[in-house]
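Components:
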Amino acid sequence: MAKDMTLLWGSGSPPCWRVMIALEEKGLQGYNSKQLSFEKGEHKGKDVLAINPRGQLPAFKHGNITLNESYGACLYLEEQFKNQGNKLTPENKAEVALMYQRMFEGLSLFDKIKQSLFYDRFVPENERHDSAKKRNAEGLKDEIKIWEGYMQTTGPYLAGKSFSLADVIVFPVVAFLFRFGLNEEHFPKLAAYHNTVKDRPSVKNTWPSNWKDSPGMDTLKNL
Amino acid sequence: MAKDMTLLWGSGSPPCWRVMIALEEKGLQGYNSKQLSFEKGEHKGKDVLAINPRGQLPAFKHGNITLNESYGACLYLEEQFKNQGNKLTPENKAEVALMYQRMFEGLSLFDKIKQSLFYDRFVPENERHDSAKKRNAEGLKDEIKIWEGYMQTTGPYLAGKSFSLADVIVFPVVAFLFRFGLNEEHFPKLAAYHNTVKDRPSVKNTWPSNWKDSPGMDTLKNL
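Structure:
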């Protein structure tokens, strides 16, 4: 039980989701969990601002300690609860290195997603250009191809044989791609990875509630 | 001595510089060091592509292990050489959490720098907008103010009393700001932090060579 922990989160956000997966993996169920709505702007509300002055989710506390950066929260939980729940750092030095490499390449993947899928959200109308949209879509496709290539030689997990922090952190981003209609036939290795990890208890237990109740998008189906 | 390590790097790049600082801190001098020129496009050359298919620097190898993501390389070096050189993880749990929090907030700071200072490099001419430049400059200023605020209550290092991975990773980004003319009088706490860390041996020994030979810019002097 983790009564001294509080997580404010929004459904479907990879940064929030990865912290929820890390908490499940480390056997830290029972934390104070509060779901907020991005659509209603609740991430800019005073409950969040009291923990995270940037007004972003996740907002996470462990006792008096605040850790709002999702990568940081995952690394912290693994380090502070080394001998509890599932070990998320491989034994093997080469897998540890690959875990770190993939974990941080995950930032590129999420960046490309934001640049392409959320272009209209981030770029004011009078600054939008079809040339930028096209370039961003190509950038996302190239990035996804890199990951498809990785999974042709590595597996079943991102860093090899063990489920690790790389999966905790990057899986929600991969799931996001399939939620937006990524074609399983075009990216079969990534699809196999997605299908392996989506049934893991920590992932099933934290699956975005709004994804269960609504169909996915088909934005990426032709990619 | 670290003869089984190879680092390909470019001068003045915060991602390269942080790996060099980490290597110094962990007593891993003597690695194979190869400086390349971004200006000449050498980061897209075959030496780099053999290690880093993205054609980016740093490109880092330890024996057969490849770790090109600078955050990952720093975390890996600290973990694999726990008992060598300087310990870069604080003992105290609250400082560990703060180390992770600041380390990853450092990504926001570097993003804002790139959006503002490198706007013309990243955005094709026909897609540029004065409104975007103005918004990006304000975004950078707001971000720097957040860091100035942090240093009003924390210090002398980013996570408190101990020099940690947060400093290894974020100091080069802070130094970049002053290289671009950030006004010490407008941001006195950040300036004090910069002045404290810049004389640290690991930092002095790796100070960008092209910064020594040329004056800084004054782009940020009015911020």
